[in-house]
Specification:
Layout (H helix, E strand, L loop, with lengths): L2 H4 L4 H4 L11 E5 L3 E6 L13 E2 L3 H16 L10 E10 L3 E2 L5 E11 L8 E10 L10 H5 L7 E8 L1
Antiparallel strand pairs: 1-2, 2-6, 3-5, 4-8, 6-7, 7-8
Length: 163
């Protein structure tokens, strides 16, 4: 595990959302191209229904994970800029609801950045996926280790964020 993986910042410093709108629970791993996070769907969620959490909320899970990616990639000499989700392409859900108390793994991978210069405004594109978590929720670690633990995603989307 690298030093930047050993001490991941609190979600309070990574995303602007506060409960009850903060929907993700923890960042597990990241590198320069991707970030992994977890969420444990709960009956306490403001979007809960008797059947579970609507799977379309996977888009917001992925958007909050992308926000964490921006913060983790930000330079230490300036605060991260807030991004705006401007488009979602190909949102695919393989089930109507996420079951309560069945943890999910979230992966957001950077696919492009226009222009590629970090200091300017940019349109950033991500591929996102929601996976059922393994029986034992993984501890923070390297992205490659997490990728080896998951099967088929239950929700995928392509996100465009203006930063």
């Amino acid at each position: 595990m690298t030093d930047h993986q050993a001490k991941l910042p609190s979600l309070n410093t990574l995303i602007p959302h506060q409960p009850p709108m903060r929907l993700i629970d923890q960042v597990l791993a990241f590198d320069e191209h991707q970030v992994w996070a977890t969420v444990n769907p709960s009956e306490d969620c403001i979007f809960a229904t008797p059947a579970g959490i609507p799977a379309c909320l996977g888009l917001e899970y992925l958007a909050q994970t992308a926000a964490a990616f921006f913060s983790l990639q930000a330079s230490t000499d300036r605060p991260p800029r807030a991004g705006k989700l401007v488009a979602c392409q190909k949102l695919i859900t393989r089930q109507a609801y996420f079951a309560f108390l069945q943890p999910l793994l979230l992966r957001v991978t950077l696919t492009s950045r226009l222009p590629p210069v970090v200091t300017q405004q940019a349109l950033v594109k991500f591929a996102g996926a929601v996976f059922p978590a393994p029986t034992a929720l993984p501890k923070p670690g390297l992205p490659e280790q997490l990728a080896d633990m998951v099967g088929e995603p239950i929700c995928t989307a392509e996100l465009s964020v203006y930063l």
